[in-house]
Hints:
Mean pLDDT: 89
Radius of gyration: 20 Å
Amino acid sequence: xxxxxxxxxxxxxxxxxxxxxxxxxxxxxxxxxxxxxxxxxxxxxxxxxxxxxxxxxxxxxxxxxxxxxxxxxxxxxxxxxxxxxxxxxxxxxxxxxxxxxxxxxxxxxxxxxxxxxxxxxxxxxxxxxxxxxxxxxxxxxxxxxxxxxxxxxxxxxxxxxxxxxxxxxxx
Length: 171
């Protein structure tokens, strides 16, 4: 990354992936064109999980080339008077695997269900069972993670940290 001061630490990137609920999955599409599709996700145990219909362009692309990236934007605040945007985003790079085996699919789907419908155990079990035959799960193993935030957010954090640092008088 060219602007290293704006780079987010890996732990912060993982926290952002945990907090966010949607992002854009990019694959190598037909004719070598990038294909990007917005998806809900869950970040769990160092991997990203998505659900998908059993057929479609996204799955065709993953089957041809498993290299993917996934981008989330945690903050996107346009500040017109400063001609800028206060943003914070993360991009994960890795490989995708399509899961069609029933029990693994059920386990991974439970992660999504718990993320989006926490505590809904009875209804959730019925929804998971109902959807198992109609979908696949996609597991993205992350190989590289990068995050960046606006320089204005870096400056705000640095000022806040400086204000919290106690000063010692030597007199």
